[in-house]
Design a protein that fits this description.
Elements (H helix, E strand, L loop, with lengths): L1 H19 L28 H12 L2 E6 L2 E6 L2 H10 L1 H4 L6 H7 L11 H14 L1 H4 L3 H17 L8
Antiparallel strand pairs: 1-2
The structure holds 2-acetamido-2-deoxy-beta-D-glucopyranose.
The site of 2-acetamido-2-deoxy-beta-D-glucopyranose (NAG) has 7 residues, from helix 6.
Length: 164
C-alpha cells in the first residue's frame, strides 16, 4: 500500500513540475498565451519570423516575452527600449547564454554570439575603432575609390561582374 502512495505522490510531483514548464514566470514582460511544456513553441514562426514578431509587438508592446519550452526569449522591438537596455544598462544585459556549437564554429570570435569576457571586449574595442559613425567617415574615401573601381571593372568586363 505504502509503495503505491509514494508512487502516486511521485507522479503527482512530476505532473505539477511539468505543468509549470512552458508557463511565463511572474515578472516577465507580457506575451502570447502559453501552453504547458511547449510555452509558445507551437506558435513560434518557422520562417519570416519578423512578420509574427511585428504582429506580437503591436499586441504586447515594444518589450514582450516568449516561452520556448523551459527557456525564455525577450523580444525588443522599440528603439528606445533597445537603447535603454542594450546601451545604458549594458552592464547587466551584455552577456548571453553559452552557445557551444556557435562557439566551435566561430572559435569564440563572433561578437554577436560570444560570451562577455576579455576576448569579447577586445573584439568590441576593435569594432568600435572602425564602425562608429565618426570613425566610418574615415572609410569614405576608400569606399568611394572602391565603388569607382567596381563600376570601372563592370564597364570594361560586364560578363565578369560577379568576380568584380
Ligand atoms: C570568451 O568566451 C568565448 C566563448 O564565447 C571563448 O571561446 C573564449 O575562449 C573566451 N575568452 C577568454 C579570454 O576567456
Amino acid at each position: 500500500m505504502g509503495i503505491w502512495i509514494s508512487l502516486v505522490l511521485g507522479l503527482l510531483c512530476i505532473f505539477v513540475y511539468l505543468r509549470k514548464v512552458g508557463s511565463r514566470e511572474a515578472g516577465l514582460p507580457p506575451g502570447p498565451p502559453t501552453i504547458p511544456l511547449l510555452g509558445n513553441l507551437h506558435v513560434f514562426p518557422a520562417e519570416s519570423a519578423h512578420y509574427k514578431f511585428t504582429e506580437w509587438a503591436r499586441k504586447y508592446g515594444g518589450i514582450y516575452s516568449l516561452k520556448l519550452g523551459p527557456g525564455t526569449a525577450v523580444i525588443l522591438t522599440d528603439a528606445a527600449a533597445v537603447k535603454e537596455l542594450m546601451d545604458k544598462r549594458s552592464g547587466s544585459t551584455v552577456d548571453r547564454p553559452a552557445m557551444h556549437v556557435a562557439d566551435r564554429v566561430t572559435g569564440g570570435l563572433n561578437m554577436g554570439l560570444a560570451r562577455y569576457n576579455e576576448s569579447w571586449r577586445t573584439l568590441r574595442r576593435t569594432a568600435h575603432a572602425v564602425l562608429t559613425p565618426q570613425a566610418s567617415v574615415r572609410h569614405l574615401p576608400i569606399q568611394q575609390a572602391e565603388a569607382s573601381q567596381l563600376l570601372h571593372d563592370i564597364l570594361r568586363q560586364p560578363e565578369a561582374r560577379l568576380s568584380h
